[in-house]
Design goal:
Elements (H helix, E strand, L loop, with lengths): L4 H6 L6 H7 L3 H12 L6 H8 L3 H14 L2 E7 L5 E7 L2 H31 L10
Antiparallel strand pairs: 1-2
Amino acid sequence: MASSMSEYLQQDMECEGLLECIHGLKQLDRECFRVLVESEEPLTIDEVADRVDRERSTAYRSIQRLLQTGFIQKEQVNYDQGGYYHVYYPTDPEQIADDMQRMLNDWYAKMGQLIQEFEDKYDERVEPVTVES
């Protein structure tokens, strides 16, 4: 994983790398997301865990990270006799892309502000160097 922006820019990235880059998601999170995208119907935690060959608790943590980032949705399914369970499905890709674009725009504005603060702070302290011929 890259530790600086210049390292990220030098890497060959795929669009799924945005999951890691923007949201800090892990490889397992990407696998769980892929499983949900490829499924024709919403899946339970147990079904996701089986498809990524992990323990239920491990898959659950990954699903929780995906929920927090908004990449997936959760729906409650009620039993006729009482009780319920949850199923998970991917969020509309257009909504995810809009959210990532908004986050990127916010980050860009914040970095611009910090760069200006840097320039203002150090411009006052550094005397221009003049070279005499």
